[in-house]
Amino acid sequence: MTREVLLRIEGLRIEGRSGDTWSEIVKGVDLTLHKGEVLGLIGESGAGKSTVGLAAMGFARDGCKITGGSIMFDGIDLRRATEAQRRALRGKRIAYVAQSAAASFNPAHRLIEQYAEAPVIHGVMARDKAEKDAVDLYRKMQLPDPEGIGFRYPHQVSGGQLQRAMTAMAMACRPDLIIFDEPTTALDVTTQIEVLAAIRDIVRQFDTAAIYITHDLAVVAQAADRIKVLLRGEEVEEAPTRQMLDAPREEYTKSLWAVRSFARPVQPPATAAPVLSVRGVTAAYGKTVVLEDVSFDIHAGRTVAVVGESGSGKSTTARVITGLLPPTSGEIVFDGAALPPALKARTRNQLRQVQMIYQMADTALNPKQRLRELIGRPAQMYLGLHGRALDARVRDLLHLIELDPDTYIDRLPGELSGGQKQRIGIARALAAEPRVIICDEVTSALDQIVQEGILQLLTRLQDEFGLAYMFITHDIATVRAIADEVVVMQRGRVVDAGHKTEIFTPPHQPYTELLLSSVPEMDPDWLTRLLDSRA
Amino acid sequence: MGFAASVTLGLAGLFALAWVLRAGARALLTGHSRSIASDMPLTAAFGLLVIVIYAFVAIAAPLLAPFPERDIVGTQFQAWSADHPLGTDRIGRDMLSRLIYGARNTVGIAFATTALAFVVGSLLGLWAALTGGWLDQILSRFVDALMAIPALIFSLLLLTIFGTSVLSLILVIAAVDATRVFRLARSVAQGIVVMDYIEAARLRGEGAWFLIRREILPNAMAPLVAEFGLRFCFVFLSISSLSFLGLGIKPPTADWGSMVRDNATLITFGDVTPLLPAGCIALLTVAVNFVVDWQLYRASGLREATQ
Amino acid sequence: MILTRIALGVGLLFVVSLVIFWATELLPGDLATQLLGQSATPETVAALRAQLGLNDPAPVRYWAWLTGALTGDFGVSLANNRPIADLIGARLGNTVFLALYAAALSVPIALTLGILSALWRNSIFDRMANAGALGAISLPEFFIAYILVLWLAQTGFFPSMVRINPTTTFGDRLYMTFLPALTLTLVVTAHMMRMTRAAIINLMASPYIEMARLKGLSPLRIVLRHALPNALAPIINVVALNLAYLITGVVVVEVVFVYPGLGQLMVDAVSNRDIAVVQAIALIFAAAYIGLNLIADVLSTITNPRLMHRR
After folding, report:
1. In contact, A307 and A314? CB cutoff 8 Å
2. Which of B32, B188, B196 best probes binding to A when mutated, by most A CB atoms within 10 angstroms?
3. How far are the Cα atoms of B71, B169, B176, B233, B303 from residue B107, in angstroms, in the given order?
4. In the CATH scheme, what architecture does the domain A5-257 have?
5. Same domain membership, residue C64 and residue C21
6. B199 to chain A: nearest residue by CA?
7. What's the pTM?
8. How far is A468 from chain B (nearest CA, A)?
9. Residue B195 near chain A (CB below 8 Å)
């Protein structure tokens, strides 16, 4: 059943500016979308998916320009059309849902005013009718208090609700096409489900065509009829969703699928005494209690994964362990002896034993220091290495993280890729020769293939040096891949803990169940089944 | 008006020279410095050239000036002539010579003042941002209170108390200006202090001096350098204004602000000579501003490129 | 919240008055020896100390000074023994008139130019406006003033000196103070324009402006409905900052045009080291400065829904 073509993009070329030079970021992409069809556009960062999505509206961001190809929307050539003609389409027949709803709603106006704006301006309906319509759509999007929520300002509404309100706003003129630009990426997994389900239902209900842009294959599989994979501005392949999941043709696509198959072999439970124990820790920022009675152990050569959504207290636990936030009660025990609660009271040797790797390698490495200094400083400080010995040590460390010392030792972080930067973060932690390393969401800012490399490296180093890892993450797939023990946190408390096989084998604790079941699976029917089972 | 024409011609000449020098730099330099030179707009090249010329004149003043700074070498208010290219002043000193010595006195004093304000203000600002807590609170509230008094008014108040010698002028303006530098350095550093690499260094057990010197300062340099240019302009204009008001650098020391004041009567007769020192002030300020604008643009451009 | 802000402003003014008063305590020796010079006999110094009330402890003198200032009594000038209130009297009005005149000229011009050059970024208009502003910022105020004198007063269009008395009509006043007001306007407009431009450009890069464009709104509507409400707070601050700058600017301009205002009086007092007068005028200027910033803060709070409508 093929319906008539709504959007046809041919040979699209877009250039982007960095500094004073222009370079091509979209290199001849074709795209066809039929009425009522949902196309998933996936790719890693820099693939040009958002740029293509915006081009479908005849729009290029500042610093970008469309240089070639044609964009035909329902018989209208968007590249040849006047700006006024394009404006008449935008918001009315083609609408846009942005990644960050919090930033994309105007902070100065109430939600319903922003909802009514497009229908009134485009002459679709009068203001009072638009406002009634808004309440109706808010209800369809399952927003709480649909009559009242429109009269709030954006800052008074939560992220997941804003994202749904933005989808409702995009629907206001009943457009033929909606561009969803990573609409659930910034949300927690349990919220993501709700938004994803609401988007899918409303698009089906109004028979709206959509381009759904994301880097998460499992998410797009739930909503898209067809999937197109982009890599560095070029199409890799395109196929109907099921076919794409079952039998990807291209090597690149296969590698995207394969990422989640990496897993460290299950280790026997540790028998020795723990290297580090968190014992009954309660902590607060001012008067707000953020951690309550948190306890768990970390063993040599093993990984404890601390899992939870934003605000669950996982990173705060790390701050307590490192001494940045002294607890109000409880203690951190290292090798059988309690550590002083505050950073300043700890000895240099105590500091050396617990090292940290950060989520954003960009902000974790001083951009003005060369790798020699970045990696060398801990070795110099803790182990007293100088001159030749220091140089040799830095080279060893670069070898360990699989970077060629001669090429990299005098580079600045800005001259490295994201994955390489994260490796430098690992090398810096290793340089101190610690026994415990805290990894704070170390893979979540990276593309999937790069993630796998980092996880493999960490696993290898753990086996080689008997390191104990505390692995903070919100990503269940990562937990499955590398954890030995799992600690599940919610609102500052430990709600579930145990060996990985226990945690992942039913029956689950209720919150663990919710968390586990919310992780999208590579199965187009997963969301439908989940919603049925929850109903 | 022949005068306006010659000024225009002079400026055009400077621009042309700046263009030639930039072209030369592009041809001769290699690597990083070459890419800087090729990005440089003409205005910035002009600014740099003017700054270099001023620096040269200030250093070589005794060699360049036809007459000594303070000697009375003619009758008062002589017109422009071969002996005195720019005529003489109110009591018969050579205008050109005083203009040349003015580069040394006015610019030198302004530079020393800015440097002093910068060292004090930025070190305190970085320290306050890094340490936080009560130290930051006390310093910041104190600076807030001082900044609630307009700069010129506060300077006038302090000058009344300490008298109007050159030393007290430098100290007073530097003190007033250090509050502004403190504010900027603190806010720049606050943006840096929240970075994970600072946390990493703290966790490593580094001391405050290492953090300021090795971790914060290299990253704060670009905005601080641009701010130095802006503060210099501000200090330079403040000192000139005070001298013009008769409260700054005083005769017989040759200074551009007080030279305008001294000879202002000529303006009402349509003579432009008293405006020449003011023009010298304006030209340098414009030049510094051109260079600062370019630096700020470069800093923001680099940020965009790395994103 | 607005009340706390006002209370903070009053508190700040109090602290500033302390600073201004405390400044005299920094005098080497004390005020009496300072005034009479090194050669004065101990008797005359003692007499003067008694007359100035210097024998009282500092807190007592501060309290007397502050309460006096609040009721308009600033004591007497050290130079000529006349009540400072009399010296200030009409001059305060003249200075306020000049500042308001300059503000009335500069605020509309600067905001218009700033908004336009932000909208037409990198156009010829923007480049010209920026170059002009950069130039105006770089010139000393007295340079601008004298150039205006050279061009406009020499040709006889406007007077280069301002002679006003209580009988001068409003129209004549506007005419006679045109050159000083224009000088101030040129300086302040440049600053205000650059800051307005920067604030708007900063705003136009936000995602919600892109969203408005993607809703198919016209550029005019985007600016008026989506940018302007959010730009109000920064623009209010820019205006306040520059009006505060005007306060300082008047000092130099008043001297050039021999304008009978507070700035002129202050410069004379500094030359005579008449600390009592300097303190009084510094307090007035500081109060105006703090007041302007306070008004700006309150206004930008009112225009910000995030502060007015809590979660």
Report:
1. yes
2. B196
3. 21, 14, 18, 10, 33
4. 3-Layer(aba) Sandwich (3.40)
5. yes
6. A364
7. 0.82
8. 18
9. yes
Under an 8 A CB cutoff, do B205 and A348 touch? yes
With tokens 């530097």, the residue in question is B174
Give the tens place of pLDDT for each residue, B157-186: 888 888 778 888 899 999 999 999 998 899
Choose the final residue of a domain: C32, C54, C70.
C70
Q: How many CA atoms lie within 13 A of A243 on its CB side?
A: 10
Low-confidence winner among A221-235, B54-68, B261-275, C198-212 (lowest mean pLDDT):
B261-275
Minimum CA–CA partner of B151 in chain C: C248
pLDDT above 90 covers a percentage of chain A that reads 33
Q: Does C26 touch chain A (CB under 8 A)?
A: no
pLDDT of res. A303: 93
Please provide the DSSP assignment of A388-416 as one string: HHHHHHHHHHHHHTT--HHHHTT--GGGS
List of chain B residues whose C-beta atoms are within 8 Å of the C-beta of residue A25: none
Report residue B227 as tokens: 């701010």
CB of B254 within 8 A of CB of B101? yes
State both tokens at B284.
């340098």
8 Å CB contact between B101 and B61:
yes
Q: What is the pLDDT of residues A92-134, one digit of tens each?
A: 889 999 888 888 999 889 999 999 999 998 888 898 999 998 9
Distance, CA of A522 to CA of A534 (rounded, Å): 19
* pLDDT surpassing 70 at residue B299: no
CA–CA separation, A30 and C284 (whole Å):
70
Tell me what pLDDT residue A471 has.
93
Predicted confidence (pLDDT) at residue A156 exceeds the cutoff of 80:
yes
Flag if B197 and A360 touch (Cβ within 8 Å): no
- Contact assignment for C211 to A105 by CB distance below 8 Å: yes
Mean pLDDT of the C92-105 span: 90
User: In which domain, by residue range, is C145 found?
Assistant: 97-308
Give residue-wise pLDDT tens across range B139-165.
Answer: 888 888 888 888 888 888 888 888 778
Q: How far apart, in whole angstroms, are the C-alpha atoms of residue C12 and residue B144?
A: 9
Q: What is the CATH number of the domain that holds C103?
A: 1.10.3720.10
Which DSSP string corresponds to C90-139? HHHHHHHHHHHHHHHHHHHHHHHHHHHHHHTTTSHHHHHHHHHHHHHHHS
Give yes or no for a contact between C53 and C29, defined as CB atoms under 8 angstroms apart. Answer: no
| CATH topology assigned to domain A276-504 | Rossmann fold (3.40.50)
Tell me how many domains chain C contains: 2
Q: Average pLDDT of chain A?
A: 88
Contacting residues of A for C229, CB less than 8 Å apart: 106, 108-109
Flag whether pLDDT at A262 surpasses 90: no
**Residue B233 at interface with chain C, using a CB cutoff of 8 Å:** yes
- pLDDT confidence tier of residue B306, bands split at 50, 70 and 90: very low
Minimum-distance CB partner of C230 among A92, A107, A153: A107
> Which of C12, C35, C70 corresponds to the end of one domain?
C70
Find, among C179, C141, C162, C281, the residue nearest to B261 by Cα: C141
Chains that touch A (3 or more CB pairs under 8 A): B, C
pLDDT band at B307 (very low <50, low <70, confident <90, very high): very low
Chain B with chain C: Cβ pairs closer than 8 A? 135
Residue of C nearest to A104 (CA): C208
Which ipTM score applies to this complex? 0.82
Quote the radius of gyration of chain C (alpha carbons, Å): 24
Task: Identify the pLDDT of residue A422.
Answer: 92
DSSP B88: B
**Alpha-carbon distances of C164 from A39, C182, C258, rounded to whole Å:** 77, 17, 11
Asked whether the predicted pLDDT for residue A206 surpasses 80, the reply is yes
> Domain spanning B69-300: which CATH class is it, in words?
mainly alpha
Domain ranges of chain A: 5-257, 276-504
Give yes or no for B148 touching C (CB within 8 A).
Answer: yes
